[in-house]
């Protein structure tokens, strides 16, 4: 009975989320069609940003520079909280009140595939004027496109899942980070670092499911059926069958080995907690996103040499064939205000210019979204002084197959993170637990969550 009631509660929650995602415009399809202007007659562009603090100041500078570069449009930057708060507020508003352009996390991209009417596809603007997208990093094209290869969002923040390494400690232990091609390789590497340097917990991992999903995606493994949810709405989790079952088993087995020897830091904490742990020398390998490069450089303050490398494979013998990208991107709201949408597109193109992509990458630690940004003098200096492996990471993205560069398209309302956290927490708490049982539970939990979403959808 309790299980039945729990399922009913979960279904109610999913129905609410799906209903929000299907919110229709008030007043029919013509609602909100009136162009909005500033007091001095310019076409207004309402830009919702999720950035505050010093990065928010840089985003405002980019808007100011765009406004000064022409006299037809005027961009106003509005901060509406982080990704979650921004998305919740957006869905709760009538279409007539939607902003013109929004910066949101890459994980929201599937919503635009399955819920037409939320965003006007970037591809519409690209096709209308023949805009050349060949300068965008190939892996980003894959991540932000639908099953037909059409861009729905424009990338702005290009992050990469991988690991920071303490070069000073690695050199002392005789460990070459570049040779760590598979996640299970870290078990022996951590033992060497611990023995040679006394580093207490050589491996740390941010509490985020991407440090599992991106690793198996890197070796071309799909987490969902229907081409990872890009070909059609997903109906099946693939954890229960090979090759993902094998990769997951080997991934969790490595975590169990590390935990048994006390070599893995707690799987919890804030971003700054992990950065402080790494910069103190109490961990040597930290699975994180490259977007923390600038923060680590500033916190490290020269105490150790460090670098960052792309994610290895999840399995013990997997070959990395792609480097999936994450981060955040821009979408143009489908608010029916054609002129304001066009202004949002013009602003988007401005943000893709080298001076802007360089500024944003240097401020955040993201990789540039365009290939030509490496020619920007200020970014060259940044690579030489702060993000010394940036070129290597960009080369990895450039070598990626766009068809295998996209992570699972988790449907809106599906809680896929909790089952993954539970699996890792279980193995860390009891390294002797049956890995087969943990993998089977993970599969069942993900499938149950997916079934709920499909039930609500139908």
Task: Write a brief structural summary.
Helices cover 47% and strands 12% of the residues. By secondary structure, the protein is of the alpha/beta class.
Structural features, described:
47% of the residues lie in helices and 12% in strands. The chain has 19 helices and nine strands. It has helices spanning 2-21, 53-69, 83-92, 109-114, 122-129, 138-143, 167-173, 185-197, 210-218, 225-229, 244-260, 271-279, 293-300, 338-351, 354-364, 377-385, 390-398, 417-429, 435-457; strands at residues 43-49, 73-79, 101-105, 119-120, 154-166, 203-205, 285-289, 306-310, 325-333. Strands 1, 2, 3, 4, 5, 6, 7, 8 and 9 form a nine-stranded mixed β-sheet that branches. Strand 1, helix 2 and strand 2 (73-79) form a beta-alpha-beta unit. Helix 7 (167-173) crosses helix 8 (185-197), helix 8 packs parallel to helix 11 and helix 11 packs across helix 18 (417-429).
